[in-house]
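Quick one - inputs below.
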Amino acid sequence: MSRKTLLNSTEIHIILHRLACQLIENHNDFSNTVIIGLQPRGVFLADRLTKILKEDYKVNDIKSGTLDITFYRDDFRRRDAPLEANKTNIDFIVEEKNVVFIDDVLYSGRSIRAALSAIQSFGRPKKIELLVLIDRRFSRDLPIQPDYKGRKVDAINNEKVIVQWKEQDGKDAIYLIKNN
Amino acid sequence: MSKLSVEHLLGIKYLNKNDIDIIFQTADHFKEVINRPIKKVPSLRDITIANLFFENSTRTKLSFELAEKRLSADIINFSAGQSSVKKGETLIDTVNNILSMKVDIVVMRHPNVGAGVFLSQHVDAKIINAGDGTHEHPTQALLDSYSIREKLGSVKGKKVVIIGDILHSRVALSNIFALKLQGAVVKVCGPTTLIPKHIKSLGIDIETNLKKALEWCDVANVLRVQHERMDIKYFPSIREYTQLFGINKQILDSIGKKIVIMHPGPINRGVEITSDVADADQSIILNQVENGVAIRMAIIYLLAEQIKRN
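Output:
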């Protein structure tokens, strides 16, 4: 197994600020926009972006939540390991709001498809956008593409993208793991 | 999340502590789902469930049906009163006919003890026991424990007294198993004629004085007197039962602390519990009903997870 660093913590820091600026360009003061981190790993990115928007760009009133997609996945009863559910926390109205889904890695697109179904339980958003830190190109099973992406990666199927967060793993880093 | 250690839910006595933890964790997520504007998830779109009720039921049947619908399962309902059972068909024939319709899970209530176990040995479907005679009612016990956990933070170490007709109660037996498994201290309280002879072998104490029982406990689970299961007279009169074992505001005020009041339903208001107690803020009877849907969703979901796709 070999490990290649795709992004170090400095590069991640720069990318996060660039993504925050792109969000501000499209959503101004976020008065009609909500941020939703997809469980489990998208939540770290959503929290980090919310913090940057509030502290560095003075966007004070941002509504952010978390969405668990376990019960909407299309691989229930198709996996060896049971699916583990996480907490959904959406304590605001999504009806007629602009919703930005946030996830760490976009791979097959199936998680996003599940998220699109899940969010309908909370109302009918005006618009849904997708922000991802890593866009694994050429791996999609569904016609789903991100609106905002940190970095594009051309990884083949036996390679895995691992995103580490300071809060969870001690440091920010993104690796490409290759099984030889 | 690990898997359940059982392939069916036939009774609490077949579960371990880890199974209960898994069911409760899953129910936590479903409780959030049933409080959304749209209370439905698509998980069980390709699962068919048969609800077989060979005995009357309102609450349990509705709760299961709602849980199944919330999970997007297909449902067929069967009540013995309007079925071919009346024409002499056996249980296995009835169920096999239903299974021929490609049913994955059977939820069954039956007047005979062990009907669920019997069925699980003869048919190829997941069996959920929704009450078998005076034996077990596992989903009720799980939702009762879940409601205690929700109200008091945990079940471990809590003092729970089960009051009333213990002898005929499947709810009592399943509750005793579930509460003991989670580390609660359990007592039963009721007329000696309605307390089973060997109940102490389950590691619980008997208290025949209602006031002492209430002074001791954190939670009182009040049971209905089951006249339909009584073939002889177990106490002189309803009035006497109410005077000695009925929960009213006066007795609760006299114990000097606020305990949690539970009841599995249906309530005989004015017999085992008065209306002002049943509707008081220390009563969690309606929370039990809401939690029943979440718990049953969790059990159905976890058992369905074990069904391999063709």
